[in-house]
Amino acid sequence: MRARQLILCTVSLFNALEMLRSKDPLIELHDVVLSLLAQNSSASCLRAIAMRAREFTQAVSVSLFLLDCVGETLERAVFLGEEGADSTPQKLRLGEGVAGRSALVGKVLHGEEAINGGKASYSQIAVPLMVTNQSFGVLVLLSKINSPFEDGTEEYLETLAKYGSQVFTSLQKLETLSEEQESTPHFEIGDYLKDRIMHAAPGTIFSSVMRDLEREVLLIVLRQNHFNKTKSAEALGLNRVTLDKKIQQYGLYEV
């Protein structure tokens, strides 16, 4: 499953690059995509996106925000910039300011921002990070008014955000799968059965082994589904009432 996700992601990225080159040879993202694919964590991928955005635009600062699990607040995950250019707050409400509105509507937005009591003004561009037409974050860049963003900046940032988002979410999924596998107990069925049969009292082998085996299966499936009873019941082929009874019987409660 991991290999399939990475292959699909890689193919879509390079297909996109070929299409991009055919439209505008001045925009070269080949090395950018390779650097994103080389990242070994979702956190390092976010930082790589911000670094590439700043390198291309020579922006005074770059901030990258992610939407929280509730879907109401954008929290800053990455900041790169000059001292004194850190004017963007750590958190933004969805729809607040240029960045919040960009994430809300899923479009690139431009604006101006004044910092240091209005002594310095900056051009601002906000680019949403999206997967399946839904925003999960926003990339925000500031440039001095007398050094505005050049032509081609918006197209580059949109492309970087679009395919960087794919790499980021793929890495997130792989991290989640790894965590689930680590949390699932290592269960050697053959050795377990041999041990239980050897130590079971005469006349109780079948009932005791099957009871212990059922408990282990239930526990593994519950953990894989984060103790969501509805999903666990569907995976096990049980109705919800039966699963509840077995959870009570074996004391399988989330700790």
Task: Please explain how this structure is put together.
With 255 residues, this protein is of the alpha+beta class. It is 53% helix and 19% strand. The chain contains nine helices and six strands, in the order αααβββαβββααααα. It has helices at 2-23, 30-37, 42-57, 97-105, 153-183, 189-199, 205-224, 229-236, 240-250; strands at residues 61-67, 73-81, 91-93, 109-115, 120-131, 134-144. A six-stranded antiparallel β-sheet has the order 3-2-1-6-5-4, sandwiched between helices.
Q: What are the defining features of this structure?
A:
single chain; 53% helix; elongated; 2 domains; 255 residues; 9 helices
Percentage of residues in DSSP E strands: 15-25%
Number of helices: 9
Q: Helicity, in percent? A: 40-55%
Instruction: Using the coordinates shown, work out and report the CATH topology of the largest domain.
Output: Beta-Lactamase
The shape is elongated
CATH class of the largest domain: Alpha Beta
Please provide the ordered H/E string of secondary-structure elements. HHHEEEHEEEHHHHH
Number of domains: 2
In order across it, which strands form the biggest sheet?
A: 3-2-1-6-5-4
Q: Describe the sheet with the most strands.
A: 6 strands, antiparallel
Radius of gyration: 25 Å
- The CATH superfamily of the largest domain is GAF domain
Structural class, judged by helices and strands? alpha+beta
The total beta strand count reads 6
List segments where confidence is low: pLDDT < 50 over at least 5 consecutive residues.
19-27
